[in-house]
């Protein structure tokens, strides 16, 4: 793929791609600590499963390494430069191309969210009512990115949740 083709492809992607992000963050935008989620939120995991089931999910290698294996009922793709035997691996450009023909859900981590933000049309954001000390991964800021909040729902912590949370739905 030459530079002109990549530039033309990026222009098309900004208009026509089908990328959706999904993440949970604390009150300060933290999404991870020491390679893991810094909370246990069963309600948010159920929300994640409802949104991602039967769809294509794309993630970075660190996110893949934090999982117990492939998430069932979904096409799992890892963005990496290194081939792997345990999961499908695609380049950034290949994932952008895939987003021209089907919805791709970006599930993390922090660097991958930043990479795909300009191509994203929809975001499912869960705000966990806590502040994580020592966080080392963060969600991208939506400020000034053209997103509009179209739905918000407060959820009390259930018996298998550590904190209350707010489910938000953003589009642009």
How is this structure best described in words?
- With 172 residues, the protein is α/β, with parallel strands linked by helices.
- It has one domain (17-171): 3-Layer(aba) Sandwich (Dihydrofolate Reductase, subunit A).
- Helices cover 26% and strands 30% of the residues.
- The chain is built from five helices and ten strands.
- The chain has helices at residues 3-16, 42-52, 61-66, 92-98, 110-116; strands spanning 19-25, 30-32, 56-60, 75-79, 88-90, 104-106, 120-128, 137-138, 148-155, 165-171.
- The strands form two sheets. The chain has an eight-stranded mixed β-sheet with strand order 5-4-3-6-1-7-10-9, with helices on both faces.
- Mean pLDDT is 91; it is low at 1-15.
Break the fold down into its secondary structure elements and pairings.
Blueprint: H1 3-16, E1 19-25, E2 30-32, H2 42-52, E3 56-60, H3 61-66, E4 75-79, E5 88-90, H4 92-98, E6 104-106, H5 110-116, E7 120-128, E8 137-138, E9 148-155, E10 165-171
Parallel strand pairs: 1-6, 1-7, 3-4, 3-6, 4-5
Antiparallel strand pairs: 2-8, 7-10, 9-10
Rg, alpha carbons? 16 Å
CATH-wise, what's the superfamily?
A: Dihydrofolate Reductase, subunit A
Distance between the termini: 28 Å
Strand adjacency order, main sheet: 5-4-3-6-1-7-10-9
Strand content: 25-35%
**What overall geometry do the principal axes of the alpha carbons give?**
globular
Count of β-strands: 10
Write the CATH fold name: Dihydrofolate Reductase, subunit A
Helicity, as a percent range: 25-40%
Which CATH class? Alpha Beta
Uncertain runs = 1-15
Order of helices and strands: HEEHEHEEHEHEEEE
Biggest pleated sheet: 8 strands, mixed
The average pLDDT score comes to 91
Number of domains: 1
